Amino acid sequence: MSLIPDFSNKKILEKYSSAFSLSDMEIFVFPELLYPLVISNIMSPIIWKWREDSWFDGIHKKSFKYKVNRIKQYIMEHYVFNLDLDTWGLTTKETEINRFKDFIDMDFLKQSNALFGYEGDKYYFDIDIRRHFGLEKYDNEIIPYWKTETLEAMTAFRYKESFNNGAGECVSLSALYAATLFVVGQIPLENIFLIGTPLHSQNFVDVNEGVLTNNRRIVTKKMWFNGTSLSSRARRALENEKVTIISHISGHIHYMYEKASIDIAAYNHFSEKLKLFLTTELSPLVFINFLRYHMNFKKCFQYKHFMNGHYYYIPLETIFEYEHNSKHSFSEDTREALINSMHADEFNLASLENRLVIQDVEAFLETKKDASLEEIRNYFIEHAKVSNCKNEENIILLFIELSRFLNVHPQLPASNKQFEKSEVLKINVEQTREEILQLILEKSSENEVALLALYAFRQMDKIDWKPFVKAALERNPVSIEGLKDKTAENAYQLILDLPNDSIYDDKRLAQPDEVWNFGRGDGVEKAFLMANYLYNKMNHNNLSLTVDKNKVILESNNEKYSFISTKEIVKQVNLME
Length: 577
Prior knowledge:
Number of strands: 17
Number of helices: 27
Helix content: 40-55%
Strand order of the largest sheet: 8-7-6-5-9-10
Oligomer: single chain
């Protein structure tokens, strides 16, 4: 059966148009857009060139751990995290509600979007989320677009003022990680799951005990439980937020929608592996890591140190303060070196009141490996009494938090959905880029994931232009703001003077704000930038575009604007249809 989108249907048009802007809200409403972005990055020539970089020499022969660390370092050195308000501009709650109100429940939206009322991660609301993101200077109706960038747009940030490298927001980075793990690391897509929460995006890579990608970094199970500030940031989303979307090569599942396309066996396997990743047994090492993670409980403990014929006592919080600025760790073999680096004034001859000796706790945990948390808690309470420690209430609270630390229960979408089996694109690590491109093209006539991938990829000679035009004229506010004080002639000259250099290869096209942000564009892209300005600032409503290989003519209210293209496209478009 041939797949031909009906663009007279508002929902379908919005979905395919959203493949070009990919805002956080659009992906929430249309979760089927997320994996096509990954596939678009896989089809990008940029990522395949990375395989030729000497940094990745011989990577295909290396262990999984080596691969992910090598990829992590490459991404960290070439892309920064960026979530400012200026890059992709602002919209309003009313505008977005009007776009989607006919096909989503707005109450669900408010439960899942921080800017519409969601309050899952209390950290952000304790610090005032609008102030945190720089929105306090606007009224509550103004919200950011926060568009998810393609690999080309991420890489093009190096052209933008104040950026030296590429950049992207968290969903962009998760899609980049997934594509890079596949193309460069040759990790099968079946092993990569994208996890979306209202405020974060990360991936779970199901190899060995698993790895989480978190913005530019990776988090192993050991790191998850090491109690550092990095693990604290990594843990926040899965500890506090509801998981909105799981996206996979086999499909997706969304907590809001009753129907799911992900393979149920793959989803159940992922759920079990993720839960195992987020769970560990209590040991002396893990307990020390917990105390590092929870600031409130350090004051219940002291370290007993024998030196120069005497026992000395050090508050545990003091040790962690030193650790913070040291290469040595209190929970590793370098403990002795850390203690020896401390100033003599930190050592007390007298035992500190109302504190347990941490070595006694470690010894107990080492000998009682099979004890339950309840048994260990009772030991703590009894030991506190013997030691004249008055912190029984704190110890009870400590064990409540310790249980949460050892066993994170992710709020995943329920598995009682209507799972609808769909064809899975057979993309594997042995294929070349050309073979993958050919597969996507062949399957696009019958597989929506493949077709949406062509739209996200901007393969303009293979797709309908109507969704691209809609996105170009409705969701590119930054270039409008940049040209707002210009006459039509001044705007035209300014656009003409931009380097005639597209950030996309072949017959692929940038949206107007991509051209504006990165200060370059092909003639067809410049014509769309000019059209966006004329339509939104000059109120022109009679716009048409003619592209005849290298000649581009934009007609508007009997005026003609000419540009030069290298895209070799032949196309006539009434932009107002």
